[in-house]
Amino acid sequence: MNEQSRIDASEALIADMGRRARAAAAVLAQTPTEAKARAICGAAAALRKAEASVLNANALDMARGEGNGLTPALLDRLKLDSDRVETIARALEAVAALPDPVGALIDESRPPNGLKLSRVRIPLGVIGIVYESRPNVTADAGALCLMAGNAAILRGGSEAVESNQAIHRCLVAGLEEAGLPADAIQLVPTTDRAAVGAMLRASGLIDIVVPRGGKGLVARVQEEARVPVLAHLDGICHSYVHSAADPDMAVAIAVNAKMRCPGICGAMETLLIDRGFAEPEGLVDGLVEAGCEVRGDAAIRALDDRVVTATDTDWDTEYLEPIVSVAMVDDIDAALAHIARHGSGHTDAIITDDADAAATFLNAVDSAIVMHNASSQFADGGEFGLGAEIGISTGRLHARGPVALEGLTTYKWIARGEGTTRP
Questions:
Q1: Which of 15, 25, 92, 357 has its CA 20 to 30 A from that of 176?
Q2: Quick one: pLDDT band at residue 77, thresholds 50, 70, 90?
Q3: pLDDT of residue 402
Q4: How many CB atoms lie within 10 A of CB 83?
Q5: Is residue 393, in this structure, part of any structural domain at all?
Q6: What confidence score (pLDDT) does residue 233 get?
């Protein structure tokens, strides 16, 4: 099949899936909470029952991944075992137990014109999710979309095709058991990259696209999409140790922010140390002793001969591994200027016992998440009490930060009158 034929076939496939998803979304918008929760819990039960077949499918993906030279980190993201299958099932049940946002009253008012106005939450409609590696995203994304009353079109990566199909069958089983349309959660049946392009151009069929994966995937989605995108490109997260920071607290937070799990988007990538901070050597030593490579400016290199020279590109790099760039800054204004220039709008933190300095930082930093005396590793929907998340958004429209059920809804105005006419 030539390239144009592949594109045409993908366009037809996504158009058909989109029409079926749109019909399912109309049903879901009116579906009671109990039925949605029953479908998700039914999927969890089906997943536990199908554990052997899910693990067999995953073994095929793992063997293919090893043969294709996937890195150990990617293989670990792909791998399923009994404990991970159970974790996915429990995550499904946790989503089912969350408060249903659909129909929730946001606010109401009665202006002088006599109307009674209210804003209520409604589903977004049809959500496309494009993701890589992690099979659990199939379950998490499908369940979150469903609970928020949306239909989902899922397009997983080719490295997890067998695992995704096995998990998707469990989601469909839950839908059918609850009497809901199977088209509510669809999995794109091809790994052809043309299908992703078709999803990105499916204006009128898909209402929003959420990419979950590496920088290359997210960049492609943001560049090519003709529908709204909810995503973040980089997680260049900063921790700023203010002159009034407690030294022990500063070391504990900095080491945790970088080294607890270096590969997540909320991991600290740059540490800024105020020139007035009393014990900068302890911060550098704590990171090095924890197994982190420290790349610093001249002032930081003068503190410890284990520090290597930071280049201009280091300040704009999301390492996602045990490497951190460290700079000495003159004061809080210099820290704010550095973050404004090099940050990605994801998560930035200040460590200080000075309440005024904390307030200045929290108000001035324009990021989706800003923190005071806490590790940036908390940038996660589960840690924010939202249950599972569909991703982190650094955009300024619709949803920002960890996106869970509420972020998968919009709202409509309802106006009630009593024969009210406008003069």
A1: 15
A2: confident
A3: 92
A4: 8
A5: no
A6: 83
- Torsion angle, CA of 168/74/322/352, rounded to 10 degrees? -10
Compute the CA torsion angle 217, 219, 225, 229 (nearest 10 deg): 90
- Is the four-CA dihedral 65, 231, 378, 375 of positive or negative sign? positive
The Cα–Cα gap between 18 and 168 comes to: 17
What's 144's domain CATH number? 3.40.605.10
134 domain-assigned: yes
pLDDT, one tens digit per residue, over 174-219 is 999 999 999 999 999 999 999 999 999 999 999 999 998 888 889 9
The pTM of the full predicted model, rounded to 2 decimals, is 0.90
How do beta strands 237-241 and 268-274 pair?
parallel
Do 139 and 250 share a structural domain? Answer: no
Verify that 276 and 249 share a domain, yes or no: yes
Nearest to 141 by CA among 205, 105, 80, 188: 188
Residues 226 and 244 reside in one and the same domain:
no
Q: Are 208 and 127 in contact (CB under 8 A)?
A: yes
Domain span at residue 366 reads 237-381
Q: Which amino acid belongs to residue 182?
A: A
Q: Which residues of 260-273 are buried (b: 16+ CB within 10 A; e: fewer)?
A: bebeebbbbbbbbb
Cα–Cα dist 253/347, whole Å: 14
Q: Give me the DSSP letters along 59-110.
A: HHHHHHHHHTT--HHHHHHH---HHHHHHHHHHHHHHHTSPP-TT-EEEEE-
Domain for residue 394, yes or no? no
Dist CA 269 CA 318 (whole Å): 6
